[in-house]
Specification:
By secondary structure, this protein is α+β, with helices and mostly antiparallel strands. The protein has a domain of 54 residues. It is 22% helix and 22% strand. The chain has 3 helices and 4 strands, in the order H-E-E-E-H-E-H. It has a 4-stranded mixed sheet, with no helix packed on it. The protein starts with 7 loop residues before the first helix and ends with a helix. The structure holds flavin-adenine dinucleotide. Flavin-adenine dinucleotide (FAD) binds next to loops.
Length: 80
């Protein structure tokens, strides 16, 4: 909070102000053998050219998000 009097959270919020955000929309499955990707959520499926996954390694290690097809073993091992 040292360099902004509104607090660091305000800086992050301002930086992402133009980004569309949907809260409370957990991704259950990511299909990546389709053209682009399809992310299956509790609120429908989102299709995109690509997905950046920023869930924690623990979420990925416990397979809370299923990948179809499965990720290569070398990728999966990196979550532990
Ligand atoms: C108690 C505590 C105090 C901390 N204090 C500081 C500090 O003072 N300064 C500092 O720099 N760092 C601090 N940290 C560390 C900092 O919080 C983390 O490094 C940072 O939040 C990591 O950001 P991230 O985006 O990688 O992960 P996260 O913030 O964990 O974000 C991952 C997101 O993925 C979401 N997610 C999970 N599963 C799914 C799913 N299936 N579908 C969709 N979304 C999903 C989660 O809801 C979460 O919002 C602290 C951490 C803790 C625990």
């Amino acid at each position: 909070n040292y360099f902004t009097k509104e607090g660091f959270g305000a800086l992050v919020a301002r930086f992402g102000a133009d980004v569309r955000v949907e809260l409370s929309t957990p991704v259950r499955k990511i299909l990546w053998d389709v053209p682009g990707v399809a992310c299956v959520t509790d609120r429908g499926t989102i299709r995109a050219k690509a997905v950046i996954v920023t869930a924690s390694p623990a979420v990925l290690a416990f397979e809370e998000i299923e990948f179809a097809p499965a990720l290569p073993d070398t990728h999966f091992a990196a979550f532990f």
